[in-house]
Structure formats: C-alpha cells, structure tokens
Write a structure and sequence with these properties.
Layout: E1 8-12, H1 17-28, E2 32-37, H2 40-50, E3 54-58, H3 64-72, E4 79-82, H4 97-125, E5 129-134, H5 147-167, E6 172-179, H6 188-191, H7 194-201, H8 215-222, E7 233-236
Parallel strand pairs: 1-2, 1-4, 2-3, 4-5, 5-6, 6-7
Helix pairs in contact: 3-4, 4-5
Length: 245
C-alpha cells in the first residue's frame, strides 16, 4: 500500500534539510525523484548519492517561466512535494514590505505556481497524482516575529483545500503536512537558549521533531494508502498545537 514503484516525484526546496530528506524517503519507497532548488549543485550531489532514479534540476519557485522550463526538462511526474519555503524573523512593527513580499512570494505564490504547473501536466497526462504542500503548525497558530511566514502558511493550508476540491475530478489528491518545530543546524542555537528550552517544554512530548517523524505522513499522502484522502492537513508536532500552556 505504501510502495511508490513506478511513480515519479518532483520535490521543491530539495537542497534543504526537509527537501533532501523527503527525496530520500520517496526514493527508498521506489519512486523516481526529481530534486529541484535554486542551489542545484546541492541537488546534484544528492542525486549522485541516490544513484539511479534520481536527477536534479534548477528551480526558482518565484519564476513562472523557469518553473515551466524545469518541468519540461524532466519526464512527467505524478507526485509533487511543494516544500520550498523561507522566513523573515522580525517583529511586526519592524517587518518590512520587502520581508513580506519575499516570504509570500516563495512560501505561498511559489507553491501556487508550482502546484498549478504540476497539476496542468497531470491533467494533460491523464495520470492523476498526489500533491503534498508542506505547511506548518504556524498556519493555525502564531509565534511573535514571523508575520509573513504565519500568513503564508495559513494561506497555503486554505489553498490546499481549494486545490483539493477543484482537482478531485482529475483524480489529483491535494493534502498538506503541518510540521511543528524540527531540529536543524539552523535553529540549534535558539533551542539551546533559555527561551528555546522553555518553548520545548511547552511541547507535550518534550522534544523537537526530527525529519523522520514526517515520513509516515509523507508516505501516506503520496501512496495508495491515502487514496481516499484529499484536502486533509496532517499535523506532526508532538502535540504542541493543541497544548493550551
């Protein structure tokens, strides 16, 4: 039920921690994988590591023409993992228009553009498919200092539902994963601080997430095991988003 043999997955933001991990998981499940990101050299290194059934392509999710060119450069894909994302960390009063525009452009507009291009091709191929948008628990709740990010992820969750309704007739399922805080080299300094340790204590499981904690949700949404799921948002956060403390 969870096998992806004969499937091909296009992963955006594949040069980052989660994108690269998602590529490994889907590849291990039998899928061919297309690793897409601006830092194409990182994707090429991962593709070489994975060996067969993996290739890299340069992609800037803000560039509509470049998105079409990236899809033109690879065989048809029936899985899309919309993973590219950034954040600008500043208080609301200091959050500039440039900060706002950049985050919305990548996290929401980029997901729309890539999702639309992938879906158009799935429709043309009459293949059906699965689109997984990588949202965040911050699409449903907030923390100070990331106004653009929380707004973008909230929009992405609602866009997921919109896409699910409109694309169902084409046998395209659209769902989202909403991770909590995932441990990485980038945030290690913060979570080692007093404020970071206090935040971790508010997570019922008392730990940060790991990339592999998302594997089950990813494989469910991309495989036959999730065949009757569309418009769903799977939260993977150790219970953080339901904790009132």
């Amino acid at each position: 039920m969870f096998s992806l043999e004969g499937r091909r997955a296009f992963i955006t933001g594949a040069s980052g921690l989660l994108g690269g991990h998602f590529a490994r998981v889907l590849h291990a499940a039998g899928a061919e994988v297309v690793l897409a990101a601006r830092r194409v050299e990182v994707c090429e290194a991962l593709a070489a590591e994975l060996g067969s059934r993996a290739q890299a392509v340069r992609l800037d999710v803000q560039d509509a023409a470049g998105i079409a060119a990236a899809f033109d450069a690879v065989p048809p894909c029936d899985i899309l993992v919309n993973n590219a994302g950034i954040a600008a960390t500043r208080g609301f009063l200091e959050h500039s228009v440039e900060d706002w525009d950049k985050v919305i452009s990548v996290d929401l507009r980029g997901a729309f553009l890539v999702g639309q291009e992938a879906a158009r091709r799935m429709v043309a191929e009459k293949s059906g498919g699965s689109i997984v948008n990588v949202a965040s628990v911050l699409g449903a709740r907030i923390i100070p200092g990331v106004s653009g990010y929380t707004a973008a992820k909230a929009g992405l969750i609602h866009l997921t539902r919109q896409m699910a309704v409109e694309l169902a007739r084409h046998s395209i399922r659209v769902n989202a994963i909403a991770p909590g805080y995932i441990a990485s080299d980038i945030n290690a300094g913060f979570f080692d601080s007093e404020a970071g340790e206090a935040m971790v204590k508010r997570i019922p499981q008392r730990r940060l997430g790991k990339p592999e904690d998302l594997d089950g949700a990813l494989l469910l949404l991309t495989s036959k095991a999730g065949a009757h799921m569309t418009g769903s948002v799977i939260t993977v956060d150790g219970g953080h988003s339901i904790n009132a403390l």
